[in-house]
Amino acid sequence: MAKAINGHGLGHFFPAQFFFQAHQHLFQGNAVQGVISLCAHTVHNKKESVLYINILADWVQPVSLNLALGIAGCSLKQYITLSDIVNQTLIPNAFVRWHCQALLQRRYDIQPLLNTLGMQLSDFDSDGYLLRAEQYAALIKQGIKLFDDESFGAMDPPLRNGTFEFMARACLHAANLEEAIQRMQHFFYLLDRPLAWQASQVQSQNILELQTPDSQTHSYFVAYWLAVVWRFLCWLIDTPIKLSRVEFAFSTPDFAHEIRPVFADLTHYGQSKNALYFAKSFLTLPVKQTPRSLQTYLINVPECLLSHYKQDLSVARRIREYLESLPDLSQAQLGTTAARFNCSEQTLIRALRQEQQKFSDIRDKIRKQRAGYLLLTTDLSVSHIAHRLGFSETSAFHRCFRKWHGQTPQQFRQASGQSTTTM
To answer: Is residue 82 one of the residues assigned to a domain?
Structure first.
């Protein structure tokens, strides 16, 4: 049993205290019952619950699942529901309705967007979960592109497609978080829209307020931008910013229970302003991101809307962060990645399969982003870039690049006016 714990290779994903206490139970001769009881007492949220029960099922099959469920007081039906929500990262139907209703207020025709999902707006009338996170993210991205509006109809004239990206670039070279917030404030001031960010300090707290007319009517826009800006600031300094309070000027929606986890259960409605509260001590932390890391962040902005910064327990996200940190993706192989996380290749494949993910898909998404970045910002030859991305042959890189962008690497580079070096 001790070998099973050490060899399972998931120590990187779970608190050290978990394994320390588990070993204590093993030495006391009460392995299965002790470890399962420990799991039941260390569950804090839905995601941890599913992950702990899954890992137990791998350790002490075939009776572990029923035993773990019994001790945790969770029925098989509840477990399956939780597992679906967690492993597929399903989005509440209420969020989809909220998003669509915001667009309809501006008389945008949303049916073409829903057609891409093969759905009608009425499909989301009932409570539940129909869309996965990536589908919801695609819905947001496609809507922004189709309507050229990042305010989802809240601003007139609208916030054009690319507003957030240019704001992010303006903040990227700030010395610290305080300067980044000042740059963000100035950026929106220059837009000449009925929208502004105001920073103030009261005692030990920094208050970042989103000022916009008619928050009640445009509640989705307010909640979306507060969530995205909070996560963006966390990302800028590479540190989770712990909120102490979140205020909304609009009244409590019927689905407030679905919003609470997005803002760490700190939401207050019917307030005088829309604002994030956090400790002033974060303001002096340095900005740590680069133009290259920004490209990856921009790809994932809609997906990260509903997740807490660096609190996602998924194996896929940990692997993605590891691969993104590699300067040379020729090292991004399944075997070396499994060794990095102290597990076998098969263990890593099984863990990703539980989340409906594949190692190759994660790696290819990073390859696609980095290929474009290297072609546009460096004079490296195509063959050199292919090697940097982990392709054994340049021809294989050409085939993948055509699949990603519909053109060759040379054509992609020429379109930007860059060098056409190929050797």
So the answer is: yes
Distance CA 322, CA 343 (A): 15
Q: Give a yes or no: residue 308 inside a domain.
A: no
Clarify whether residues 49 and 153 are in a common domain.
Answer: no
End-to-end CA distance of the chain: give it in Å, rounded: 54
Residue that has been written with the tokens 């707290």 in this structure: 205
CA angle 358, 85, 354 (to 5 degrees): 30
Q: Based on the domain organization, do 145 and 9 belong to the same domain?
A: no
pLDDT reported for residue 422: 43
Q: Give the domain-ending residue among 42, 69, 87.
A: 87
Helix, coil or strand: residue 236: helix
pLDDT above 70: percentage of residues in the chain:
73
* Alpha helices per DSSP H over 109-162: 111-115, 133-147
261 cis-preceded (ω within 30 degrees of 0)? no
Residues 98 and 82 in one domain: no
Both tokens assigned to 389 = 């991305």
Residue 421 lies in a domain: no
110 and 240 share one domain:
yes
What's 397's domain CATH number? 1.10.10.60
Q: How far apart are CA 398 and CA 380, in angstroms?
A: 15
DSSP 325-390: T-S-GGG--HHHHHHHTTS-HHHHHHHHHHTT--HHHHHHHHHHHHHHHHHHH----HHHHHHHTT
Tell me which DSSP letter residue 90 carries: E
Whether 130 and 233 map to the same domain: the answer is yes
Domain boundary among 26, 60, 87: 87
pTM (global) more than 0.85? no
Q: What is the mean pLDDT of the chain?
A: 78
113 and 46 in a common domain? no
Q: Which domain holds residue 76?
A: 2-87
Say if residue 274 is in the same domain as residue 180.
Answer: yes
What's the structural domain count of the chain? 3
CB distance 98 to 224 below 8 Å? no
Measured distance CA(400)–CA(390) in Å, rounded: 12
Nearest to 332 by CA among 361, 352, 304, 289: 361
195: left (phi over 0), alpha (psi -120 to 50) or beta: beta
- In this prediction, residue 211 carries a pLDDT of 95
Task: Give the tens place of pLDDT for each residue, 164-204.
Answer: 999 999 999 999 999 999 999 999 999 888 899 999 999 99
CB 266 within 8 A of CB 246: yes
Query: Are 334 and 352 in contact, with CB atoms under 8 Å apart?
Result: no
